[in-house]
Amino acid sequence: MNISLYDISVWVLPLVIAITFHEAAHGFVAWRFGDETALRLGRVSFNPLKHIDPFGTLLLPAMLLLSGSPFLFGYAKPVPVDFRNLKPLRAGMVMVALAGPGTNILLAVAAALAFHVVPLVPPEAARWVAHNLYNAVLINILLAVFNMLPIPPLDGGRVAVGLLPRPLAVPLARLEPFGMLILVAILILLPLAGAQFGLNLDVVSRLVRATTDSIFQLLLLLTGNA
């Protein structure tokens, strides 16, 4: 797979912005609901270096891309939140979790609307700007959809823990230490194992891609770009 400097330049900026705003939003909403942990540690910040995990944000996605993996997967440094400080607890947990994906959707809308100013950009830069905006819409929608999978520690898992009755919420919350292993198994190992037997077990990835594509097309339509 040949990846040019141009390809890197139109993916890195939208990815870094999407991750930075996602994580900063978690910390900001946690602070607004009474927990200052992220604020004290400098995580309510638009400085990407505060949020990027060298392996999870850069190395792992690059390895998967170069290996031809059926799904790209990565993560940033999790924003520390002491849920005991949130008031009210359950509403705070849900709102903190929704802050990241919600921010990504807002960024996707902003990028889609910005397509309308591309004709005003000098011709020599217009193609680069358009590709950045296109990738910003795609990346932010994908991050929002992926993070809303109902598996802790993803945001969707924490939303589910905050909304479900206690008998269901407690066992789901106990999965959090194993969440990343579950995701790797579902997104990478299961499809690879299925391929050995001629089976397409890439169910979750296909669901995420289909949902992302549907929201992408709808957003382009609503912002007058379709």
Characterise the protein shown here.
With 226 residues, the protein is mainly alpha-helical. The chain has one domain. It has 9 helices and no strands. Helix 1 packs antiparallel against helix 4, helix 4 packs antiparallel against helix 5 and helix 5 crosses helix 9. The longest helix is centred in the first third of the chain and has 28 residues. It is globular and about 55 Å long. The mean pLDDT is 89.
Question: In summary, what is this structure?
Answer:
The protein is globular, with a radius of gyration of 18 Å.
Biggest sheet record? none
Q: Which spans have pLDDT < 50 for at least 5 consecutive residues?
A: none
**N-to-C span:** 30 Å
Number of domains: 1
Task: Give the ordered list of helices and strands.
Answer: HHHHHHHHH
Give the helix/strand class: mainly alpha
Overall shape: it is: globular
Mean pLDDT: 89
Count of extended strands: 0
Strand content: under 5%
> Could you estimate the helical fraction of the residues in percent?
55-70%
Roughly how many Å is the radius of gyration?
Answer: 18 Å
Number of helices: 9
